[in-house]
Amino acid sequence: RNYFWWISAIVLIGISAGYAVAQFSGLRAPGEPLSGEIDRSPRNLLSDARNLFFSGDMEGARVVVEEVLRDAPDMSEALVLSARIHERMTNPLAAIRQLDEVLEGDPINIDALTLRGWILVRIDDPDVQEEGIESLDQAISLQPDGYDPYIFRGFVARELEENLDLAIRMYEMALDRNPPNEMQTQLNRIIEEMTSALNRTSG
Prior knowledge:
Layout: H1 9-20, H2 42-54, H3 58-71, H4 76-88, H5 92-105, H6 110-120, H7 126-141, H8 148-159, H9 164-176, H10 181-202
Helix pairs in contact: 1-8, 2-3, 2-4, 3-4, 4-5, 4-6, 5-6, 6-7, 7-8, 8-9, 9-10
């Protein structure tokens, strides 16, 4: 089985912009330590690991998130971040193992379902890709507020299934989630291209 990466500007923007929101989601607990104190709690370490991840320091992020998991082995946010690091470092099997661990305890974890699906659909095996599509569909069935699941599912519908109707619907649902302006522009452009292609076919 060959693991391969699809290069797509819309997806890369989705990853960087969508997941970056997490680092501003109130990870630091109320009552932060006074200046000069070092808070080594798992949640604050997780914040540090995410900052390293989003800055592109995968090795640094991996080291810190492993420290988090030593102290809090069942912390789902840390397991998902660790899986994202493994994915970025092209170690998909390790990522899937950690995502399955999350889903065993929380079968409707949207982040885990989304990342699991996105990894599996890029493995060159039809059965594995189908399993990935099922994970993405399950994430979407939960009606997530974030736009990444819809972008990933739309990309798969367009490139893997050649289902432009579904791809358009997914991208429109992503637009309903108010993605960044640059992404909105790209989504609208791609929707226009697919709509034109469908019109040519029907005409």
